[in-house]
Amino acid sequence: MLHLHHPSFKFNRSIAKQMWKWLVPALLACLLAGSMVYGLAQPVNADADDVAIISIAPGMTTQAIGEELHKQGLIKNVLLFRAMAKTQGLANSLKAGEYAFSKAMSVEEMIGLLARGETAYRQFTIPEGYTVDQIAELLETKKLASAAKFKAYAAAYAPYDYVAPAASVKYKAEGFLFPDTYQVAAGASEEELAKIMAGQFDRQFTPEMKARAAERGLSIRDTVILASLVEKEAKVDAERPVIAGVFLNRLKLGMPLQSCATIQYILGHPKAELTIEDTELPSPYNTYQNAGLPPGPIASPGIAAIRAVLYPADTDYLYFVAYQDGGHLFGQTYEEHLANIARAGQ
């Protein structure tokens, strides 16, 4: 039996006293550090309701992101931001984009948003020459809209007086949804998306362009129809004004425009080589069978194509045929055109 006066008991009590001398401060320090870390990870201002849009560029490091957030007063400590991102295994997963952050958000919430890529705005680009069908499919692919709903809305959407669609058009909005890069709020409706693109067209078609169109005896709508043909036919930038000149020359003479692009539009899909049967398809868009302009644009033209119609090349050409390099061979007479066709086929 161990007695209280045994020397080993005195020794253990001595060790215990020494342990408490450093253990208690260490525990207190740990608790204090934990409290500080917890405090630094909490929102800067839990009652804040303002939102700051922060741009995170591609390739930004966790350190750089933390510094930007700290600079904007959104986090309390950059080192803690880095440490938490690393601890969660997300330091290399923070995505670029525009984010909506608030001082009421915790560091963990911000890291979560960045890791999931939940940007404040969704970005998409409509290429020049896209049709409503292509725009709708792109929006659905990017999970921004339902293609079917967007098409249904575009079919009846005529936002401005100058659109004045003919009864036979497939989409009233065709040609007036401007090709550009857009940033939209997540959850924007098909109607809102169409209005944003149509509004951009209205801004881009400047008063100077309207005056120039009037000077040339063209309505805005006719300008856009012609520009859509130029957009679809031209593959080389420098040829846009020349192709526009050819179309305008043919219109003056009452010749059918004979644009292959209009046949492609009727078909609804690209076809490498058109047949004689294709050019005989019954449709108001068939510019082989019908003189004058088609009833509406066949795509969304960019500014370069629009300006080509407003400022066409001064040329006597009436014909053009696609050549191997993506460009075209131009001719003044039908005989010259036949020779160019043979040359293009070599």
- Along the chain, the helix and strand elements come as HEHHEHEHHEHHHHHHEEH
Give the neighbour order of strands across the main sheet: 1-2
- The structural class is mainly alpha
From the spread of the alpha carbons, the general shape counts as elongated
Give the strand content.
5-15%
Major sheet, described briefly?
2 strands, antiparallel
Mean pLDDT: 86
User: How many DSSP H or I helices?
Assistant: 13
Secondary structure layout plus pairing:
Layout (H helix, E strand, L loop, with lengths): L6 H35 L10 E5 L5 H10 L6 H10 L9 E5 L5 H10 L4 E5 L6 H10 L5 H10 L24 E5 L4 H15 L2 H9 L4 H14 L6 H14 L6 H8 L35 H8 L8 E4 L5 E4 L2 H11 L2
Antiparallel strand pairs: 1-2, 3-4, 5-6
Helix pairs in contact: 2-3, 5-6, 9-10, 9-12, 10-12
Structure at a glance:
The chain is mainly α.
Overview of the structural elements:
It is a single chain. The chain is mainly alpha-helical. The chain folds into 3 domains: 52-119, Dna Ligase, domain 1 (2-Layer Sandwich); 122-204, Dna Ligase, domain 1; 207-344, no CATH class. Helix content is 47%, strand content 8%. The chain has helices spanning 7-41, 62-71, 78-87, 107-116, 132-141, 147-156, 190-204, 207-215, 220-233, 240-253, 260-267, 303-310, 334-344; strands spanning 52-56, 97-101, 121-125, 181-185, 319-322, 328-331. The strands form 3 sheets. A two-stranded antiparallel ribbon has the order 1-2. The protein has a two-stranded antiparallel sheet with strand order 3-4. A two-stranded antiparallel sheet has the order 5-6. A hairpin with a 5-residue loop joins β5 (319-322) and β6. α5 packs antiparallel against α6 (147-156). The model has no long low-confidence stretch (mean pLDDT 86).
